[in-house]
Structure formats: C-alpha cells, structure tokens
Specification:
Chain lengths: ~325, ~250
C-alpha cells in the first residue's frame, strides 16, 4: 500500500518538476527555472540526509559540510582550469564520502545529543577552515571560474539543459534510494532506528552499517554541493554553515522523514516559502518557525502524510 | 557429566555499591532446561545480560561450547549460538511481525551489504521466518505491525526472533511476565515444545511454569547461587524455603 502510494507520489513529483520549464516558458517567467533547479539541488541534499536521519535515526547537524566540500570540489579544479564534470563531480562525491568516513567513524561512537554536537562541531570546523583560506575566497567566497562541462550537447550554461540534468540526477537518486532502503542494507538501517539493542541481540553489529550509510549520504550530498556551486556560480564557505545544516533538517522533517520523496516536497515547500515570504519581509523565518511547529504538532509525518492516502501521522 | 555447553565461573558484577552478581558459578548441559529463580533484586536479569553480552562482567569467565566468550559482544555471541529474549519486550515495533523474524534470519545469513534486491522478496529470508512464526503460533499475524500485537503475542514474537538465529542456547528472561492466564498457558505450551530440542536458561517468576519445565533449578539470592538441583530437591531445600519465606513455592 505505502509502497504503491510512494511510487505514485514520486512519479507525480518528478512529472511536475519535469513540467516546470514548460510552464515557466508559457508564463514567461524564466526565474522559475532557476528557483526549481535550486529546489531540486536541495532536494538531493535532503534525500541524502533522509537516509541517515529519517531511516537510520541519526540526527546529523553537520550535513551541510558535504554541500560545501562538493562546492569546493568544483570551484578549486575550475580555478586551475579543470572544468570537466566527469572529474569534478566524482571528486565531490569522493571527498565528501571521505570526510563522512572520518566524521562518522568518530561521531557514530556516540549517540543522542553527543552525536548531534560532534557532527555540528566537525561541520563548523570545516566552515572556519573555509573562511581562513584566502586563496580560495576566504570569508567572502569567490566567483566560479566556469560551470562544469559534461561534454557533448550537455551544456550546463543552457538553463534548460542544466535543469534536466539535475532532474535526472534526482530521479536516479530516488530510484536507487528506493532499492537501497528496501534491500537488506536498508532493513538493517531502519532497524537501527527502531531498536538498536535488539539488533545487536539478534547478531548484527550495527556500526559498520551506520558508517556505510553515513558515507553514502555524505557522498550524495557532495554531489548536491557540486550542483549548487554550478547553480550559484559562486563558492562561499557559508554553504557549510550550521544554519544550512539546520535548513536541510527542516526540509526533511517538513516533507516527512523516512519517505525519500517527502524531503523533495519539504525542499520545495521550504524554498518556495522562503521565496514568497522573503519578498514580504527579511524576517521570513518568523513565519516559517511557527509553521514548522504546526507541522510537528499536527502532522508528524510531514507534508507526505498530508497528501491523499496519508494518515496525517506518517 | 560431559563438557557443559555453558560454563560460568566466578562471575562478578557491581553497580556502584550494589553487588548484583557475586561470584556465580553455573553449568548448563546441552539439551537441558535450567531455570533461574530468586526474589526480586536477586540479580537474575543482570546475570542474563552478562551471559548474552549486553553487560560486561567485572570478573569471571563465561565459556560457551568450549570457547571463552567473555570478551565477545552481544552480536558476536549471537553468532556463536547464544540467543536471548528480553524481560521488557524488545521488538522492532514499526516492522511487521514477519519482518521482525526475517531480519533475525538475515542477521545470520551473511553480511547485509546488499543494496539492490528487496529483502521482502528473498525467499531465503521469508520462508524460514514464516516457518518459525508457525512454530510459535503467530502465522496468522505475519503481516500485522508488531507494535500493535497483543502483549502475549509480542512475547511469542520475542521467542520467534531468538529461534530465528538458530541458537544453541536460549536465554529467556521472564517469557511469561505480565501475561494473563490464557496467554501464559499458550507460552508454557510453546516452551514445552522447545524443551529438549533446545538448551534453555529460563529466568521466570511463575513457579508453576518453572516447576513444570525445568530439569534443574538454580536459586539466586543477593547475586549468589544459593542452591542448584532438581525441582524436587529445590522444593525440599530448607534454605531455599527460608529465602522465599514459604512464598510461591508449591509444597
């Protein structure tokens, strides 16, 4: 039941996203292309966080670190004349995955609030390192020397091409994610959240599975970071700031934890709200905050559970 | 007596000033059912925890199937063939009943770094899990969310998960706890079916169940083994009767 509903919502969301450029063209608002591309990039980051937060119950407050690492992995090679996406993007994923391996190997030995604090500390450490490296833009950041080059007809300079490349990556992520969470690996990760002592008692030492999930999530978020650098054509350490990590958590919770497609909805809702509300007031978070409280109080399953067929609780 | 399956020597565990396990020696022979009884606070659950690997003893050794397992984690001991059920029901509440048992099967079917094939579509996990659910009488409840099962059914599921790891020794911590008469009768029947086929260490407060099932009984008081013997010998043991002050032990 749930699986079918999720497949339908996922397909619906992807179809809607695929239609955005057409609609933007018809109403002559190319700005929407930009906005929804940004939404999809953050959706990739939020879906990656959902794997560890929503499925595994690991509340990482440092997920934006990988966003930043991914962005640097595009900007630094570009600075040195290496523009190929086939170099930059795998590099972004590898470096983010490596960082997640180190951070996870240490932080996963703790749990609860200590885990939150350690992941936060690592991300802030990377943030301050970013600030202090002047040749790479330091505090101010720097312009991207040029967008990643995929080769052939896939020119990311074309907003439509860039849009559909991001959409394709999001679609692949949702498909692969769906398989992973239903496979043996995902079952163990869900069991970690459900009842870790029980998992040990039946003979699973969860650490290496949690670490693997942490690395996977980090690598995928690194890819989102690589896309984000292309999106903004700018590199700034603020991608790694802890408030950004908080934003991604909000997207996951708002959309519905442990649902994969939910965080896509969450990213869309968050960034659309930001867009609409910030046009009224710079203090738009004053409105977002209470909204989030309402969602947590009355729809614990997030937007996902409010869609037709949901139970309001997820 | 042949080499015991489980041999405990000089086991000690203290929590601050409280000595919960105070030099426990135990032998469990393959195939037998040993019941551990004792008043509240005697250290029964602490003892089970040390046997299963959830708690680390301060001193002493635990030998299982001829190997010293004292330094091993709970997960590692599970692979040696030790399985436990918990006094306070511990299941994957948001998983279906069948998923609970299938995961226990999966835990003993190689590593879980498999990312593509749906675990629910693997007959090598589902078929054994279904068979075990039938064994404990939960086959009709396979697709129910485990957290919504009745208390007694959750206790049955506990046993099913332990069985799914194909254990050589079952550590059962108060399987009848909190059950009504019907439920506890069903559980007793289930345990009776396991008896003889499995080696069992049973901690239980329900003396009817203990005296009906145990081959031998060890009485634990203040972390020490006061006496070990056949049910008949324990029933007649003056020291045991004093420790219980006539309470519960049927004459």
């Amino acid at each position: 039941m749930t699986d079918r509903r999720r497949a339908l919502v996922t397909l619906g969301a992807l179809a809607a996203l695929a239609a955005v450029p057409l609609v933007a063209g018809v109403v002559n608002q190319p700005f929407y292309l930009d906005l929804f591309r940004r939404i999809m990039i953050f959706a990739i980051a939020a879906v990656s966080l959902d794997i560890i937060l929503g499925y595994g119950g690991m509340v990482s407050l440092g997920h934006a670190a990988y966003l930043g690492i991914g962005a640097y992995a595009v900007a630094i090679p570009a600075l040195h004349g290496i523009h190929s996406a086939w170099v930059q993007w795998p590099l972004a994923m590898a470096l983010s995955g490596l960082a997640a391996l180190v951070i996870g190997a240490i932080s996963l030995r703790t749990s609860g609030v200590y885990f939150i604090m350690i992941t936060l500390a690592f991300a802030q450490m990377l943030y301050y390192i970013g600030i202090s490296i002047e040749p790479w833009g330091g505090d101010d950041g720097m312009r991207l020397a040029g967008r990643s080059r995929l080769g052939g007809p896939l020119d990311l300079g074309d907003p439509h091409v860039f849009y559909y490349v991001v959409l394709a990556l999001l679609a692949v992520l949702l498909l692969v994610g769906e398989r992973v969470v239903a496979a043996r690996f995902g079952t163990v990760i869900r069991a970690v959240k459900s009842n870790e002592p029980r998992l040990r008692a039946i003979g699973v030492a969860p650490f290496r599975y949690k670490l693997a999930a942490f690395v996977l999530a980090g690598a995928v978020c690194g890819l989102a970071g690589a896309l984000l650098a292309n999106q903004t054509e700018y590199l700034t350490p603020s991608y790694m700031h802890w408030t950004r990590s908080g934003d991604i958590i909000v997207m996951v919770i708002l959309g519905g934890m442990g649902t994969l497609v939910g965080p896509v909805l969450g990213a869309a809702a968050f960034l659309l709200l930001e867009n609409v509300l910030s046009a009224w007031t710079v203090h738009w978070q004053v409105i977002l905050g209470p909204l989030l409280v309402l969602v947590v109080l009355f729809a614990r399953g997030g937007l996902w559970s409010l869609l037709p067929g949901g139970d309001g609780r997820g | 007596m042949a080499e015991p399956l489980l041999a405990v020597r000089g086991l000690r565990k203290r929590f601050g000033g409280l000595v919960a396990t105070d030099g426990v020696d135990l032998d469990v022979a393959a195939g037998e059912t040993l019941a551990i009884i004792g008043p509240n606070g005697a250290g029964k659950t602490t003892l089970i925890g040390q046997l299963s690997g959830d708690l680390r003893p301060d001193a002493g050794t635990i030998t299982f199937a001829g190997a010293d397992v004292t330094p091993l984690t709970a997960a590692a001991r599970s692979h040696r063939g030790l399985a436990r059920s918990f006094q306070i029901t511990s299941i994957f509440r948001d998983f279906s009943t069948l998923d609970n048992v299938a995961l226990a099967v999966q835990a003993h079917a190689g590593h879980s770094f498999r990312f593509w094939r749906a675990a629910r579509a693997e007959p090598t996990l589902r078929d054994p899990a279904r068979a075990i659910l039938a064994q404990v009488g939960l086959e009709d409840r396979a697709d129910v969310v485990a957290g919504t099962l009745a208390h007694g059914e959750q206790r049955q599921l506990e046993i099913a998960m332990a069985l799914a790891t194909r254990p050589r020794l079952l550590l059962l911590d108060e399987p009848v706890a909190g059950m009504g008469p019907d439920e506890s009768q069903r559980m007793e029947q289930l345990l009776r079916g396991l008896r003889g086929h499995h080696t069992i260490v049973l901690v239980e407060h329900d003396m009817d169940v203990v005296f009906a099932l145990a081959d031998r009984i060890s009485v634990l008081v203040y972390g020490r083994v006061l006496a070990t013997g056949t049910p008949e010998a324990i029933r007649l043991n003056a020291e045991v009767r004093r420790a219980y002050l006539g309470e519960e032990i049927p004459a």
